[in-house]
């Protein structure tokens, strides 16, 4: 495990390196490596989740004094959701290269790997807090998470795709998007739904998912992309 390169990446040098190693230890790793002396990262994840939410909430409260509670809540959710944290963990921190997971988990993709990465980022936040204190955790979250706030506001990423598409289409086209099921396939335990979003009779986007709602969101995303 190359601890030093990760510390250089995040700009935090641990007094207790075992905390960093624990943050990187997924429970699946212990099944294949029973001699590993450190615990899995779920306790640090539990703590890090709270630290991350507090820092984000305080920052939004201080820097957005005119925003109402509803908008502050949406912005916070956009900053600390699984997709955002997993993206930060992989692309900015490089956590995937340092995670201790089983061989099977290492091959995971999609939502499963997103969850593992997001959980590890929360555990890392918790480890920074325990080892270095609140100020260091605050700087860490500011650098890697809150730096995305301006982009989220500019692109209105705090709004879910269906709501944003409806808002734009009604304002610009005076039309309300309509979602129609195009197809449904797969066994009962693994259904795949395909949905189209229409403006009048015109198909504007298509999406697939494990549920109709998931497929509708994917269709809305494609429609928004085409409109941009």
Description:
By secondary structure, this protein is mostly helical. It has 2 domains: 3-154, Orthogonal Bundle (Ribonuclease iii, N-terminal Endonuclease Domain, Chain A), CATH 1.10.1520; 161-227, Double Stranded RNA Binding Domain, CATH 3.30.160. It is 61% helix and 11% strand. The protein is built from 12 helices and 3 strands. It has helices spanning 3-10, 17-23, 27-32, 42-63, 69-80, 82-93, 103-106, 110-132, 134-144, 149-154, 161-172, 212-227, and strands at residues 178-185, 192-199, 202-209. Strands 1-2-3 form a 3-stranded antiparallel beta sheet, covered by helices on one side. β1 and β2 form a beta hairpin. α11 (161-172) crosses α12 (212-227). The radius of gyration is 20 Å and the shape is flat. 30% of the residues are buried.
User: How far apart lie the N and C ends?
Assistant: 43 Å
Number of separate strands:
3
Determine the CATH superfamily of the largest domain: Ribonuclease III domain
Question: What gross morphology would you assign?
Answer: flat
**Which structural class matches the secondary elements?**
mainly alpha
Mean pLDDT across all amino acids: 92
Counting DSSP H or I runs of 4 or more residues, the number of helices is 12
What is the CATH class designation of the largest domain?
A: Mainly Alpha
Percent helix range = 55-70%
Beta-strand portion reads: 5-15%
Please summarize the sheet with the most strands. 3 strands, antiparallel
Question: What kind of oligomer do you see?
Answer: single chain
The sequence of SSEs as H and E is HHHHHHHHHHHEEEH
Domain module count: 2
Uncertain ranges: none
Q: Per CATH, which architecture of the largest domain?
A: Orthogonal Bundle
Rg estimate, integer Å: 20 Å
Q: Within the CATH hierarchy, at the fold level, what is the topology of the largest domain?
A: Ribonuclease iii, N-terminal Endonuclease Domain, Chain A
